[in-house]
Specification:
The protein is α+β, with helices and mostly antiparallel strands and about 170 residues long. It has one domain: 2-Layer Sandwich (Alpha-D-Glucose-1,6-Bisphosphate, Chain A, domain 4), CATH 3.30.530.20. The protein contains three helices and eight strands; from the N terminus they run E-H-E-E-E-E-E-E-E-H-H. Strands 1, 2, 3, 4, 5, 6, 7 and 8 form an eight-stranded antiparallel β-sheet that branches. Strand 5 and strand 6 form a beta hairpin. Helix 1 crosses helix 3. It is globular, with a radius of gyration of 16 Å.
Amino acid sequence: MTEASPHPDERFSRTRTIPASASAIFAVLADPSRHRETEPGDWVRTAIDPEPLTEVGQIFGMNMHAEGTGDDYRMHSTVTVFDPDRAIAWDPGQPDESGTVVPGGWRWRYDLREVDGGTEVRLTYDWSNTTQEVRDFFGGFPVVEPEFLDDSLASLERAVGTGRPG
């Protein structure tokens, strides 16, 4: 008997109102050199190319760390949504033998909406396009729980509130 998924749509979202403008939040999200600040653990390390994100189709690389194994690796993401001060999304992947970045089938998306007291930020983690091969490689999906998104949004709020560290 197959166990029913607690996430039948293969995605989940979390929302947080951050006391900052949409432009300030978007600036952090569009700056790969600041992505480490938006992650609550030690998974995201440094930007390979710290140039700001400016358009759909742009590829940016990040140095990453697998907390469970202690292994370091690189992830290359393709920007799939770029609507300044409103929405940004990327699909992580890996280059194939020819150097073409092939998405892994999951997406990180941030939607921003200014409200009284700041900006409502909805973070969505969508793994609906992952293949069985990718799911098996990672030991199943989702690789994070919904609470990780809550923690990530709290980290984003701290990043926006403090500006660039040091």
